[in-house]
Amino acid sequence: MDWLNILNLTGGELIGAYTAAYVLCALGLAMHFGFTGLLNFGQAAFAALGAYGYAIATLSFGWNMWGSVAFGLLCSAAFAVVLGIPTLRLRADYLAIVTIAAAQALRFAFATSAYDEVTGGANGLSQFGEDFYNYNPIPEGRYPLGALEFSEKELWIRIVGWSLVAIAALVMLLLTRSPWGRVLKGIREDEDAARALGKNVFAYKIQSLVIGGSIASLGGMVFVMSSQTNQPQTWGTNFTFMIWTILLLGGAATILGPVVGGMTFFALLMFTQSIMEGLVTMGWLPFLDIAQVGQIRFLLVGLVLMLLVIFRPQGIFGNKKELQFNG
Amino acid sequence: MANQISVGEPAPGCKKVDPILVASNVTRQFGGLTAVNVEHLEIPRGQITALIGPNGAGKTTMFNLLTGFDKPNTGEWDFDGHKLAGVASYKVARLGMIRTFQLTKALSLLTVLDNMRLGDQKNPGEGFLASFLRPSWKRHEAKITAKADELLKRFKLDAKREDYAAALSGGQRKLLEMARALMSDPKLVMLDEPMAGVNPALTQSLLEHIKGLKESGTTVLFVEHDMHMVRHISDWVIVMAEGKVVAEGPPAEVMKNPAVIDAYLGAHANSDLGDVTIGDAKEGN
């Protein structure tokens, strides 16, 4: 087995562009669930709106990168408000049902052939990243990083992705340590008590939904920008559940949790896959073939996560007393 | 008999010399059941008023209606010059009418100190944009922290300052909820069963706190089943039964009212329930 290659692949996941995208989505979800107590099971919709908003603004409107980013964020903020007005008055578990349904509905709307010319229908959109890569200051070439090697584009999207993670984490840190964040936590604990103390609970929830949703939209943009393809099937419920997994792995009411949770999750995924592939080629796992390994690794990761939630519900960084899984 | 609170003789729905809260024709139906049907009610300013009545009399529903946590079928009420019918609960709180809950709502996973700070209503840092600008709220934060510490000391919770509220006992949570309500210097404090679940050793200090509120000019309205407490600290008693106000007056007189004895007090009308020991109760049987 090629251990060096396995470690390389695993290390590559730690700083991957997809990892950064998922981490951004998980940070947004930490704002929703960890700090405000909103059970949002439609995080994929916010990411999708960022991705589609960007791609449509670029391809259909011919806007530059900044305009496209702004349009993506605007779409997701509008979605947060439209979704929030009727649902944020509902009890937490109803919100979960509504958000998951809204996310699915949105995905079908993107996939339908009725708006083919704008959304690309089931094929999605591609080649919308020209302006983004025009900003790339790195000259063309291959860049080694340890044993890994990146093209200038791969390097650029990683730098931008992880910078966004750093900025989002800083913004969340400032927000959650402020009196504003304290009100959110108060709402998470008991919204009636917050109301009785004169807090406009609804307004705070909308703000939280918009902020968390915007951060997830940036994640969606990073996600589609690395391959310059945006397909509707990306934004299914499995996307949302991956984000939840990352969040719970790291710790829901923390900032560092989603970041390290995301890195750990993808590194673990790659590590188990590589090892199993190695074992299969060596003939140690005769009941498996290479194609099945991709499925099996999710099973193993699922098992690890179940054990985590049972024995360490607060995640890697969470304070056990502050937030448990049933938060 | 004359008193300084009501205009004329005390009677259900009588006018007060200086009311802080005036409610008229407040009704609330749950399906076919009329939970609250109050023709007229005035709460005297600067006094401690007890709202008593048997279970299901509509006391808590009345609380919920007055504070905007529930919407009445009909009715309007006026708090300190503001029309309040249909006003959202958080706005009611901002006008200076702060309530507590029968089932204590301590914010379990916030520290005791953060619970207290949340009680403040003028913190500029609670605005979204201002929250990024620490200098804009740092001074206010220090001010309310000092105020919170002072209140915590008064309520003997200062040792628990850094603990999560979840770590407090039931009685301490009641105290915390009350102290938190005082952070915004409310004009009217509405306490829903402040004594329920509080051990007798704490009861005395709670009573002192409530009396202290009156001295500092705050109006207090509380729901309570403990007659001992009602007799000892209230200036005025309002009795509800089946959703209606059936009697009002100074505590000593109300307790003698046949309608009240009938509706509520029953056999122990003449004994201070706080003094009834288990032995006495057995003999009574």
UniProtKB/TrEMBL annotation, chain A:
PANTHER family reported for this sequence: HIGH-AFFINITY BRANCHED-CHAIN AMINO ACID TRANSPORT PROTEIN BRAE (PTHR30482:SF10), HIGH-AFFINITY BRANCHED-CHAIN AMINO ACID TRANSPORT SYSTEM PERMEASE (PTHR30482)
Pfam families listed in its UniProt record: BPD_transp_2 (PF02653)
Protein name: Unannotated protein
Compartment(s): Cell membrane
Membrane topology: Multi-pass membrane protein
Regions that span the bilayer: 20-39, 46-63, 69-88, 95-115, 155-175, 209-227, 239-259, 266-287, 293-311
Single annotated GO MF: branched-chain amino acid transmembrane transporter activity
GO CC aspect terms: plasma membrane
Keyword annotations from UniProtKB, A to Z: Cell membrane, Membrane, Transmembrane, Transmembrane helix
Main location: membrane
TrEMBL record, chain B:
PROSITE patterns for this protein: ABC_TRANSPORTER_1 (PS00211), ABC_TRANSPORTER_2 (PS50893)
GO molecular function: ATP binding; ATP hydrolysis activity
Coiled-coil stretches: none
SUPFAM superfamilies: P-loop containing nucleoside triphosphate hydrolases (SSF52540)
SMART domains given in the database record: AAA
InterPro entries reported in the protein's UniProt record: AAA+_ATPase, ABC_AA/LPS_Transport, ABC_transporter-like_ATP-bd, ABC_transporter-like_CS, BCA_ABC_TP_C, P-loop_NTPase
GO cellular component: plasma membrane
Keyword Coiled coil in annotation: no
ABC transporter domain segment(s): 21-267
Keyword list, A-Z: ATP-binding, Nucleotide-binding, Transport
Stored PANTHER family: CONSERVED COMPONENT OF ABC TRANSPORTER FOR NATURAL AMINO ACIDS, CONSERVED COMPONENT OF ABC TRANSPORTER FOR NATURAL AMINO ACIDS-RELATED
Protein name: Unannotated protein
Organism: freshwater metagenome
